[in-house]
């Protein structure tokens, strides 16, 4: 199957998952849906990459599903809005949770694959 088609179909699926998780309520101003998506997406991508999945799986799942699923642009916008509202404490916590959590997701994915 054409790689562009695999990415497009996967992206549609990932976007629906992201939409569903965007409905998770915030906690103390932190958008939990975005946090969940970024951390689980990072871990899932690490599992794919470190397991040396075939190109078709990477196109469909990695670039497609996880590309449509993860929300770095949403995270950036939400963080900017916190800065714009002078909510620097929440902004800092949001950055630490998403960046740190996503790195932990990659680490966990690596450990799952490499043992």
Plain-language structure description:
With 115 residues, this protein is mainly α. It has helices spanning 3-21, 32-50, 55-69, 72-84, 88-114. The protein is globular and about 50 Å long. The model has no long low-confidence stretch (mean pLDDT 94).
Question: Topology, pairings included?
Answer:
Layout: H1 3-21, H2 32-50, H3 55-69, H4 72-84, H5 88-114
Helix pairs in contact: 1-3, 2-3, 2-5, 4-5
Helix content: over 70%
Main beta sheet, described?
none
The helix-strand sequence is HHHHH
**Low-pLDDT stretches:** none
Q: What fraction of the residues are assigned to beta strands by DSSP?
A: under 5%
Anisotropy-based shape: globular
Radius of gyration: 15 Å
SS element count, helices? 5
A few lines on this structure:
With 115 residues, the protein is an all-alpha fold.
Keywords:
115 residues; mainly alpha; 0% strand
């Amino acid at each position: 199957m054409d790689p562009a088609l695999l990415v497009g179909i996967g992206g549609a699926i990932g976007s629906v998952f992201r939409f569903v998780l965007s409905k998770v309520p915030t906690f103390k101003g932190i958008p939990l849906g975005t946090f969940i998506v970024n951390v689980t997406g990072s871990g899932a991508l690490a599992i794919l990459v470190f397991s040396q999945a075939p190109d078709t799986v990477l196109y469909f799942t990695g670039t497609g599903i996880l590309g449509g699923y993860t929300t770095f642009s949403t995270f950036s916008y939400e963080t900017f809005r916190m800065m714009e509202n002078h909510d620097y404490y929440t902004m800092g916590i949001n950055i630490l949770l998403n960046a740190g959590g996503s790195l932990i997701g990659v680490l966990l994915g690596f450990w799952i694959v490499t043992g």
